[in-house]
Amino acid sequence: MKKRYMIGLFFVCAVIVVLAAVLVMRGSNNKNIQDETPNADMDSDIQGGGTQDDTYDDAGASQAQSMGIITTKDTMCIYENIDQKDGTVSMVEAKLPSKYVGLNRVQLESALLLDGSLMLFDENEDGFKSQHLELFSPERIKILRIYDSTAQTGGYYILDDNGEICIYEQDRKTLYFRTGINIQDLPESVAEEVSGGKYMESEVQVYHFLESYSS
């Protein structure tokens, strides 16, 4: 009986020792994990934050640099003209127009947009569609211009009909409408053009002309 009691006590003690060792090891592992986790998070924050800040700094510096770059009288201007009719491309290099000197990229793009709108109504710019800035640097800029040289069908003539400005179709015989504008109300140079027949290729150009000289 005594021998069995001693053997049982021995096993109980052994189990207690094993359990104690397991608890000690588990506590040590948890402590190590807690100690390491903040450092990992901190490293992640430092790495992530540093990368993001660097990205913002680079973007800001790039934008500031772009705004600080302006054209000069020595900047060359390259015009790339594309004809939508057959896809032909022509390149022309010229001195930068004085009105474009001293502008940064944003200012130059705005100026080209405005000039492009005016060129749509310029008779000397046949087939012009649009233009935009493709390359910008202090040394050179490149302007892409789109044209369409497809022969225009139709069109209108502004003619003098016994002192009244009238709009005729392309045959110069079919009356389109009467404007009620007296030719004497036009500037002398414009009146001379109308007397010989002033051609307009679209209704938009006719409307623009009438809007300029109607009271």
Distance between the termini: 131 Å
Query: What is the C-alpha radius of gyration, as a whole number of Å?
Result: 41 Å
Structural class: alpha+beta
Strand content: 25-35%
The side-by-side strand order for the widest beta sheet comes to 2-1-4-3
Low-confidence stretches: 37-50
- H/E topology pattern: HEEHEEEEEHEH
Number of strands: 8
What quaternary form is this? single chain
Q: Helical region count? A: 4
Mean pLDDT equals 77
Secondary structure: helix percent: 40-55%
Q: Outline, from the CA principal axes?
A: elongated
Largest sheet, strands/sense/barrel = 4 strands, mixed
Mind explaining what this structure looks like?
- By secondary structure, this protein is of the alpha+beta class.
- Among the domains are: 76-147, no CATH class; 156-213, no CATH class.
- The protein contains four helices and eight strands.
- It has helices at residues 2-68, 105-119, 188-196, 203-213, and strands spanning 76-83, 89-95, 128-136, 140-147, 156-161, 164-169, 175-182, 198-200.
- The strands form two sheets. A four-stranded mixed beta sheet has the order 2-1-4-3, with helices on one face.
- It is elongated, with a radius of gyration of 41 Å.
- The model is unreliable at 37-50 (pLDDT under 50).
